[in-house]
Write a structure and sequence with these properties.
Strand order of the largest sheet: 3-2-1-8-7-4
Number of helices: 21
Distance between the termini: 57 Å
Shape: elongated
Radius of gyration: 59 Å
Number of strands: 20
């Protein structure tokens, strides 16, 4: 629950409880108010009215007694008037009470009062009439007695009515008091309960929030800021704002760890570079003031061997030229006299002579037992690694260096050795130049001394001899000038050597950057291939199953939808392969294998693959092949067929009516020579693909051979496509030694001409084959399917029998599908269940091993390679370590088929290998083979 939700829930509960409490209090107050209103406004008024009626009645009674006994005529008239007035008021009061009474008893009492009062009023009227007529006192006295009896009854009834109303009023007052006491008790209880509920809610909110905050604080305090290689993570147990903080912290921790790893790698690289540069500078400083090549050799091998971690070493210098050329050992390190290596060798003699001949270094790690031993004071030990490397100057080997170590040479040591040897050749040349200059100076000095001696001996001879002496001095001066010129030339050579070294370093840096860029591009293409092929696998399998008219329960329209989805998936797979092919061509690492192919079968192959297209579009498809075209032709058949497939696919796509023709003939080498070099080919073939389609304008004919380009935007919208087909055609043609040209007019159709050479020996100048890039080339490494479909329809009855026999192995068989992608599991599960198989699934290697350990009777395993946790390689290895699963068939599946992965999978324990996206027929065929075996 979120922090905000907790607050809303807590305060909501508090407000809800207060609202309920307030509602109860309002209800009770309303009841109390109703009771008080009834007492004050209802009961009190009724009692007051009854009192007023009694007062009016008593006053009338007094007035009638006064009028009957003591009043004079005027007073009697006034009393009678008062009596009439009171009678009217009493009747109005009775009428008011009658309308407001609700209780039955009150109504009965009032009714009884009305009856008695009416009887009393009749008697009262008779008395008034007697008084007015002046009758005798006896009659009046009798009436007064009757009136007195009736008056008592009326007063008694009125008192009873008043007492009844007062009693009801007392009961109502008592109920009001009880309601008030109940309300006070309820308020006290509600306040206590409210305090408890609010306290519990607040404590719950504070405790839940403080616990989460304390866990975050604890993790942050445990961070070792001096070592950020491993940063602790905050456990995410909720889905509130605090969990967002925890996730953000975990993301930051992951970023810190990645930055720490990058910083460490950068520091290691800088340290290695500093290690190399320091030792290179040390050796370069050693070169100074060395004028003898033997001194140079001794100091170099003595200084280099410890830096390389070598236990023994030898330095050989080239002597002589031509047939007399040999390499003589000038110095050694840690040798034991004459037995420390060979004294000399010739070019190509032994491994060291072969390295000198090939101008290549060689590292030997598998050293035989009888090889030269490294000698110590205690005995002899065998070396573990030997490196033999040439010293090259101006593309000529001038020396050889051989080192042996008790440990294998590291990559850093090898890189350091290459950098040192880059400058050693220049140094050897400079020292030898200085030695030659020194030799010439010594010869000059010797000649000068000889001439001086002769000059002293012949001083007494003729002036002619003196002239000869002067001439000799002139020659000495010329020799001195020659020596100066040689020194100047030597300095120029050293400067040029430094410039060459700088240029070499720049070129090496650019080459390294280019190599890194190519590697990133290759890795990107390989990853894109994997990410696209993984969902495409399930699309193709499920759409193929849905489009099967024999098994599908869908309508014809829905089956047609499934076929369209399957066709679109196949088009997407073709596009992926085209992009990968183009990428391999761009980096110059597409594998090309020249082998013989039968040209006589080409027309039949083209008819088989494109006759149905021509029939569907109602256009003619014509193939002409000259008789002089050789039947045996040497080229890469797969790339050759793919070129023709792309050209014919374009021709049919852009042709609405008319025809598409293919003309195959032997090409004129002179005609081909104007487009491409023709050396090295035994013969040439010219293939023209002509159509009557929309054509191509002159200005667009160069553009169409560029990647992702078509004639114009309208063409792309109308006909579709990616613009890769013609680009791949021209690049493949170049790889095969040929060329593609186009001749077209807009609206008149197009003619594409393919010139292709027959190369029995392949391209000798670039080697037999170019190794495919390990990242990009591997995407299709295990799917070298031919561009054309060579399928021939078999006999229906034979196929039915075969299918019945081949379907039996799937019944009651259990297959374990191990894949982390739920889409692939869903597709394979439905496809294999349709074949009558029992399906078990696992999302990683751990689940797979658990299912096997439970003793499930599993007949075959479909194993994905790239999975989190434990990948397919490790899972297969662990399965094969158990003897009871030694013969269990395991078929490896992967969408990122790297070069060499087939061998790697088989080595890990796979029985067979299938790459994604899977073809259902291919997968069932492989399963059928292993289930029957």
């Amino acid at each position: 629950m979120g922090f905000r939700k907790k607050q809303m829930l807590g305060f909501g509960l508090i407000l809800l409880f207060l609202a309920i409490l307030l509602s109860f209090m309002l209800v009770m107050l309303n009841n109390l108010k109703s009771s008080m209103t009834e007492i004050v406004e209802n009961r009190y008024q009724k009692v007051q009215a009854s009192m007023e009626i009694r007062q009016l009645f008593s006053r009338s009674d007094r007035e009638i007694l006064f009028a009957a006994n003591d009043a004079n005529k005027e007073e009697r008239a006034e009393s009678l008037e008062i009596i009439n007035e009171n009678h009217g008021l009493i009747e109005s009061k009775i009428a008011g009470l009658s309308g407001s009474l609700q209780r039955v008893k009150a109504k009965q009492l009032l009714k009884e009062f009305e009856t008695q009062y009416a009887s009393y009023s009749i008697t009262e009227a008779e008395i008034i009439q007697k008084i007015k007529s002046g009758n005798s006192s006896d009659d009046l006295s009798n009436l007064m007695d009757v009136q007195r009896e009736k008056r008592k009854k009326v007063i008694s009834t009125m008192d009873e009515f008043k007492d009844y109303q007062e009693g009801v009023m007392k009961d109502t007052l008592s109920n009001s008091k009880q309601t008030y006491e109940d309300m006070i008790g309820f308020v006290i209880f509600a306040v206590i309960l409210s305090i408890l509920v609010i306290s519990v809610t607040v404590v719950w909110m504070i405790r839940s929030t403080s616990n989460d905050l304390q866990s975050i604080t604890k993790v942050i305090k445990n961070i070792d800021f001096k070592n950020l290689s491993v940063v602790p993570r905050i456990p995410v147990r909720t889905t509130d704002e605090i969990s967002d903080i925890a996730r953000s912290f975990n993301d930051m921790a992951e970023s810190l760890e990645a930055y720490n790893r990058k910083e460490k790698d950068f520091t290691d690289k800088i340290s290695e570079q500093n290690w190399i540069q320091t030792r290179v500078a040390d050796i370069a400083t050693m070169y100074q003031r060395i004028v003898d090549v033997e001194v140079l050799a001794d100091r170099f091998i003595t200084r280099l061997a410890p830096m390389m971690g070598a236990s023994i070493g030898a330095f050989y210098l080239k002597r002589g030229e031509g047939e007399d050329m040999r390499f003589v050992k000038l110095a050694s390190f840690a040798g034991d006299g004459e037995d420390s290596g060979r004294r000399e060798f010739r070019m190509g003699e032994g491994l060291i002579g072969q390295c000198a001949l090939e101008k290549k270094s060689k590292v030997i790690d598998d050293i035989p037992e009888d090889f030269h031993l490294v000698t110590t004071g205690l005995g002899e030990v065998h070396p573990k690694s030997i490196v033999i490397t040439p010293v090259v100057f101006e593309d000529e080997v001038v020396a050889m260096v051989e080192l042996a170590s008790l440990e294998a040479f590291t990559k850093l040591q090898k890189h350091f050795l290459n950098q040192v040897l880059d400058t050693l050749g220049i140094t050897i040349n400079n020292v030898e130049g200085r030695m030659e200059i020194e030799r010439l100076l010594q010869e000059s000095q010797a000649q000068t001394e000889e001439l001086q001696a002769q000059s002293e001996e012949l001083q007494s001879q003729s002036e002619e001899m003196q002239a000869q002496s002067e001439e000799l001095q002139t020659q000495a001066e010329e020799l001195r000038m020659i020596n100066e010129q040689l020194e100047e030339r030597n300095r120029e050579t050293e400067e040029k050597s430094k410039e060459l070294q700088v240029a070499k370093q720049n070129l090496e840096k650019q080459a390294e950057e280019l190599k890194l860029s190519s590697k990133y591009k290759s890795e990107f293409m390989a990853n894109m291939s994997h990410e696209l092929r993984t969902p495409l696998n399930s699309i193709l399998i499920l759409s193929e199953m849905l489009s099967d008219p024999n098994d599908s329960k869908l309508t014809e329209e829905q089956q047609e939808f499934a076929r369209v989805i399957n066709s679109s998936g196949q088009d997407l797979l073709t596009l992926i392969n085209d992009i990968l092919d183009l990428s391999k061509v761009e980096v110059g690492k597409l594998e090309v294998v020249f082998d013989e192919m039968n040209m006589s079968e080409l027309p039949e192959l083209l008819h088989r693959n494109f006759d149905h297209v021509a029939k569907k579009k109602n256009i003619d498809f014509i193939i002409e092949k000259d008789k002089n075209v050789p039947d045996i032709f040497f080229t890469d058949e797969q790339r050759f067929q793919q070129i023709l497939k792309n050209l014919l696919s374009n021709a049919f796509k852009f042709t609405e009516k008319g025809y598409v023709s293919v003309q195959i003939k032997k090409a004129d080498e002179e005609n081909v020579a104007q487009w491409i070099q023709t050396k090295g080919a035994s013969n040439w073939v010219e293939i023209k693909v002509k159509d009557t389609g929309i054509g191509i304008s002159k200005e667009k004919q160069k553009l169409i051979f560029e990647a992702f380009q078509q004639g114009d935007g309208a063409t792309m919208r109308k006909y579709g496509g990616t613009g890769l087909g013609l680009s791949i055609c021209r690049e493949f043609a170049k790889l095969l030694g040929g060329w593609v040209i186009v001749d077209s007019e807009e609206g008149q159709g197009s003619t594409f001409t393919l010139f292709i050479p027959s190369m029995p020996e392949g391209f000798k100048n670039v080697g037999e084959a170019i190794a495919a890039s390990p990242e990009v080339a591997a995407a299709n490494h295990d799917e070298p399917a031919a561009p054309f479909d060579s399928h021939v329809e078999p006999d229906v009855h034979i196929m039915d029998g075969i299918n019945q026999n081949m379907a039996k192995p799937f019944c009651n068989k259990t297959v374990l599908v191990v894949d982390d992608d739920h889409r692939n599991i869903f597709a394979l599960k439905n496809a294999l269940k349709h074949e009558g198989m029992e399906i078990l699934t696992a999302e990683n290697g751990y689940e797979c091993l658990e299912l096997l350990e439970k003793g499930n009777d599993i007949d075959v395993i479909l194993m994905d390679i790239m999975m989190p946790g434990m990948d397919g390689y490790e899972t297969m290895t662990r399965i094969r370590e158990q003897s009871k699963f030694e013969n269990l068939p395991i078929i490896a599946l992967t969408a990122k088929a790297m070069k060499g992965d087939r061998e790697k999978c088989l080595k890990a324990g796979a029985s067979d290998y299938v790459s994604k996206p899977l073809k259902l027929d291919q997968l069932l065929s492989v399963l059928r083979v292993w289930l029957t075996n």
